[in-house]
From TrEMBL:
Keywords: Cell cycle, Cell division, Septation. It holds the Pfam family MinC_C. Cell division inhibitor that blocks the formation of polar Z ring septums. Rapidly oscillates between the poles of the cell to destabilize FtsZ filaments that have formed before they mature into polar Z rings. Prevents FtsZ polymerization. This is Probable septum site-determining protein MinC. Residues 105-197 form the Septum formation inhibitor MinC C-terminal domain. Belongs to the MinC family. Residues 5-80 form the Septum site-determining protein MinC N-terminal domain. One of its GO terms (biological process) is regulation of cell septum assembly. Gene3D superfamilies: 2.160.20.70, 3.30.160.540. HAMAP family: MinC. Interacts with MinD and FtsZ.
Length: 225
């Protein structure tokens, strides 16, 4: 039988390497043998962490459960599964999130515009209209409605706009009401950005501070700045 599983020691426990050239049935059989031997050799009460490296093999949820059922007990625990490959769905999702979605339109009262990743809107958001994105939102135009960046919980997202008008900005679960005479706005500039600071409080920043506060902005393919 070919070698389907390799065990390597690590500071935090053991790394289990599953060879992609072997069938899953072979992996399961060798894991059972390996686990039985390990449990014989391990002192009672001694807890071990295992890190499963699947290489170019992508395990299904059912296959992960089979492996966990073989290895895990009160003393043996799988800390992570690592792979060199991802599913087509994950690759497509990452591609969508890596580039901003461009929309040229008006978002009227009652309408909701959503985007995965960053959103670049050229147009207007009327009072009662909502734009939201899992990433950051960049508005070139009038923002008079609601802009909700990081709406799945990403507090590193920002909202960049010309805050001349009354509007509501949300980042993750944080809410800030923009008033046209807000003292926090820098009157000498047309463009500001709203972000969540280290104290988890929303702040309004000057555009020239953007690269300092959020250096990752614009580093993805087709960056904005």
């Amino acid at each position: 039988m070919k070698n389907a599983v390799t065990l390597k020691g690590r500071t935090e426990g053991f790394q289990i390497i599953l060879h992609a050239s072997a069938s899953f049935e072979e992996v399961v059989d060798q894991l059972k043998e390996l686990t039985v031997q390990l449990k014989k050799d391990t002192q009672k009460g001694h807890k071990l962490n295992f890190f499963v490296d699947t290489g170019s093999r992508l395990l299904s949820a059912d296959e992960k459960k089979q492996i966990s059922d073989i290895i895990e007990d009160e003393h043996f625990k799988i800390s992570s599964y690592d792979s060199n490959v991802i599913s087509i769905e994950d690759a497509q999702k990452r591609a969508r999130e890596a580039r901003p979605r461009l929309e040229v339109r008006t978002v009227r009262s009652g309408q909701i515009l959503e985007a995965e990743g960053d959103l670049l809107l050229i147009g207007q958001v009327h009072p009662g209209g909502t734009v939201r994105a899992t990433g950051s939102i960049f508005v070139i135009g009038e923002l008079k409605g609601i802009a909700h960046a990081g709406f799945e919980g990403n507090e590193n997202a920002i909202v960049l706009a010309n805050f001349k008008y009354n509007a509501q900005v949300r980042i993750g679960g944080n809410v800030h009401v923009i008033e046209s005479r807000d003292e926090n706005l820098v009157q000498s500039e047309d463009i500001q950005f709203v972000y969540v600071n280290d104290l988890h409080i929303i702040e309004v920043g000057s555009l020239h501070h953007l690269k300092t506060i959020r250096p990752e902005i614009g580093k993805h393919s087709g960056g904005l700045f």
